[in-house]
Design goal:
heterodimer; A: alpha/beta; Rossmann fold; 9 helices; 38% helix; globular; B: mainly alpha
Amino acid sequence: MTILHVTGLTKRFGTTDVLRGIDLDVKRGERIAILGASGSGKSTLLRCLNFMERPGGGTITLDGQVLGREGKAGERLYRESELIQVRQRVGMVFQQFNLFPHMTAIGNVMEGLRTVRGLPKPEAEARARKELARVGLAEKAETYPAHLSGGQKQRVAIARALAMDPEMLLFDEPTSALDPELVGEVLNVILALAKEGRTMLLVTHELGFAYHVATRVIFLADGAIHEQGTPDEVLKNPKKDRTRAFLASHKQFSF
Amino acid sequence: MRWDFASVFENTDALLVGAAGTLRIFAICLVLGLSLGLLVGLGRYSRNRWVHIPATVFVEFFRNTPVLVQILWFYFALPILLPFQISPLAAASLGISLNSAAFSAEIYRGGIQSIETGQWDGARALGMRWGQAMRRIILPQALKRMLPALTNRAIEIFKMSTLASAVAYVELLQQGKLIASLNYNPIEAYTAVAVIFFVFLWPLVQFSYFLERRLRRDE
């Protein structure tokens, strides 16, 4: 069953076309790895899907509901309240974590439940403890982000997104800002979520991880989907030259 | 030259009345100035030009005119234009509050802009509205960074309260002038006024250092 349906998505920053017409269908339980060189539009695509960036053109349908309405010039107009609903249903994890430094780990995880959902404190706290335990950080609940390692910060950020019960999770290079020895703990948490059958889109440079976790791999180039298919098809037997060149450059220093 | 504070101590009651007047106008201007400043500062930050332009005009006008002139204008000129009298307290409070609002608006704006965009991203990704993100995520962090500047503002407001004596509002300096002219003891009278100000302000500054240390505990 399709949860997200994207047609003709475009985005332009100034005079640069970052996305040039993306068509994408995401089914429930799918795990899509998005690969591409820097500047290929991976992050922008992800950020358009939960409207952190307003798409320039095209339509996004979430769970059968077409978002926005058509304006006079054919552009799409979105109401802020509609986008706020979407963001609650589509969770996001950032490269730089973006934890709230003035709140403890559990404070971060509770924040959406308290402020956005309006849950009473005891309920929000119980829920937040559960999510922190899920990412293996129950004992760090009262710690401020400044005293957490990068890997722990990212796990708190994942717990924060999970607390909102999102139907879909977007990961924007979740391990790119981490020291190499901390990457594993974050990938393990994401792997556990994959095993639960969660729907997720993951922008990553961890090709091995993408191969093991993704149900589909999309290779973006110049703001368009250049090649897509199963991990075996795209990562082992790429058909297009640019995909091959990209994969070769990533394997350059591996054994 | 002999220092003789006896004539000042004889007028302790007058100084106490003056101190009460100073504290009253300080409290009024602190609350009005800093809260109005937040509104104007948010207005300066707004992308809507019907909000942005008036806020900018306000800031520029009140930053570039002397408070003393504003107080005299509110006291002497406004009643000619409008059909009511205005008390010395109201005129002085208006002048000092609006001036402080203009200066603190710039502090708020700078503080809010200094917060990384990732914080907005984190808040918005949870589904927060602009106001929720501002109140829960941005302002608490910005206030911490602004605290030294806002404390300076508060100290400035306290000292600016002496300008109210220009419209004969009863505060410390006004009472000091009175004592000095009645007893011919300007050295003692004005020294006493200065010492009283120091006694009020020094703990305020120490308190601000304490607050800064406390707010830094999450780092």
